[in-house]
Structures are given as C-alpha cells and as structure tokens.
Write a structure and sequence with these properties.
Number of domains: 2
Number of strands: 14
Largest sheet: 6 strands, parallel
Shape: elongated
Order of helices and strands: EEHEHHEHHEHHEEEHHEHEEEEEH
CATH topology of the largest domain: Rossmann fold
Structural class: alpha/beta
Helix content: 25-40%
C-alpha cells in the first residue's frame, strides 16, 4: 500500500475513488462505505484511496483532548488495506493547512492534485477555513471539477448511527461487547513494553507495562485479553489491568498485562493486546494480600474468556 504525506499522486492513483474522513477504528459504518466503494471500483475499474489527517482536526483545535483514538495509524492502515484501499493520503494537519479556504481545497487540491472520479463523504462533512465548506458546496462543483459526490445513508446500529463516537462511548462505559461488535473485531491496543516498579512480580503476577499513549481510555478495570507479538509463537491469553492502580497510589495511566503460561523478557517489544471481556471495575484494596486474592478470582474468569 502506498502512503502519501502530500497531494502529489502518481498518475495511476488519479481518477480514482477517494474517501475522505478520519476512519478511526474502522467500524461497521465505515465498512458499509468501503463495501460500496469496492462495487464502484469493480464497475468502473478504478482504484480506491483514502484522504485522512494527522492529527485529527478535532484534536488539533482542542489540545485538551487526550486519550481519544480507537486505533493508531498502523492499525488503520492495515484495516484499510484489508478493505481494498490501495493508497492513503495522510496529510499533516497544521495551522497553515487549517487556513485553506474551502474553494481552494476544491479547486487546487481535489481538482488539480487528486482529480478523483468519485468522492465518498458523510453528510456532515465540513472542510476549509473555519469549517466553511460543506457537502452542498462540493456538489455545486461536480461538473466544473469532473467528480461525483457519493454520500450514502449512515448505518444504524441498535437504532443509533454507527460512529467512532459511539464506539468510544461504549469503551468508556465498559460495554466492551458492544464496542467489539460495532468494530467487528476485538478492540486492540498496540504499545511498547516499558520497565515498571515490578509490583506485580512481587505479589506473584509479573506484568508487561504498556503506556497507552493517546488511545481512548476504556473504563478503568480488569479485562481478559489475548496478546500477540512477533517473537511469540502464537497468541497468548492473559489478564490486564487498565487504569491508575489505586491500591499503590499511582497517578499514571497504564495498561498492565499478565500473560498465562509465559516466561521471558518482552521489554522494549511491541505487544498487540486484544480486549476480550470486561471483568470488573478498578478498585482500591486495603493491602496487597486482598489484591492478590481478587486477582486469583479474576484469573479464573479471564481463562474462560474466548
């Protein structure tokens, strides 16, 4: 898959289908869009590309937003590739680009640079300086710029519009099953194993400590997980605590993963942690012994998770 950081496409990527959006998480609503794009691709024998922005404009304009992303860029790239996308334009969103007038975005970028045959957007898509541009403006320029706007009806999920916001809400409330169904996969965090205080090891449950960076903060608590890493021969089951470890008065948000039937050094390795089941909310225990007993009970639940 070709990844661009600018709008200078090679000739074979012009006159394509371009889908514009954040596509965070690649949920069922996104999949509906890409399945339709694949039908257009087959019918007109053209390629599928995605235009997305890093950081997300919402995060750029509101620096106070932390722990927001459902997936990182590498995960997004792999998911899009599996959906038939052949190239991604991952444009850096900065102050200078944010000042682009909507008409310039249409005429100088979409028409002159990308020159797509079809543009897929959501009904509420906004663009340009101070969000002045909308879908109606894009449609007004269809004939002049030689593209056709496609804006499918959004997918409804449990009577609500399938969206990344809905997925985040499910994760934050601890409704992991609902989030995973909407994602059509297990929500996964990929992160680097860091050295910790070795508290888990002292109480008999050594853990891999992972900084979750800017991933969305799912409900703090204990989860059954499945872990993958290049040097592991297969995916391993485990149990994870996502939160602030109140028993030990810690303030830093951390993902701690205890792997079943594994002994080895995973420091500085990247682990892919799939969240299978929400077991319980994070709580503060009076002492380490109480925590030990609770973990033993949690382990029994985690080992039964599929």
């Amino acid at each position: 898959m070709k990844v661009y950081k600018n709008f200078n496409l090679i000739k074979s990527h012009k006159n394509s289908i371009i889908l514009i959006g954040n596509f965070d998480g690649i949920h069922l609503g996104h999949r509906k869009l890409f399945n339709l794009a694949k039908k257009f691709s087959a019918k007109f024998k053209i390629k599928i590309g995605v235009l997305t922005f890093e950081p997300m404009p919402k995060i750029f304009f509101n620096k106070s937003i932390k722990n927001f992303k459902i997936s990182n860029f590498e995960q997004k790239k792999n998911l899009l590739k599996n959906l038939g996308v052949e190239f991604i334009i991952n444009k850096k969103f900065d102050l200078n680009f944010s000042k682009t007038r909507s008409i310039d975005f249409i005429e100088k970028i979409i028409f002159k640079k990308l020159n797509p045959k079809f543009i897929f957007v959501s009904n509420n898509f906004r663009f340009g300086n101070k969000r002045e541009g909308n879908v109606a403006q894009l449609i007004n320029y269809e004939k002049k710029c030689g593209y056709k706007i496609i804006k499918p009806e959004p997918l409804k999920y449990n009577s609500k519009v399938a969206s990344s916001t809905l997925v985040r809400g499910y994760l934050e409330k601890g409704y992991l099953d609902k989030a995973n169904k909407l994602l059509k996969r297990n929500w996964t965090i990929v992160g680097k194993v860091e050295k910790g205080r070795k508290v888990g090891k002292k109480i008999g449950f050594p853990t891999c400590n992972i900084d979750i960076k800017d991933y969305v903060l799912a409900r703090p608590g204990v989860y059954a997980v499945r872990v993958n890493q290049k040097q592991l021969k297969s995916k391993l089951k485990g149990i994870a605590n996502l939160g602030y470890r109140p028993t030990f008065n810690q303030k830093k948000l951390l993902l701690e993963v205890h792997l079943f039937n594994y002994s080895g050094n995973l420091y500085n390795k990247y682990l892919s942690v799939e969240f299978l089941k929400f077991i319980r909310a994070e709580k503060k225990f009076k002492n380490a012994k109480q925590l030990q007993n609770q973990i033993k009970s949690d382990l029994l639940v985690a080992k039964k998770a599929s």
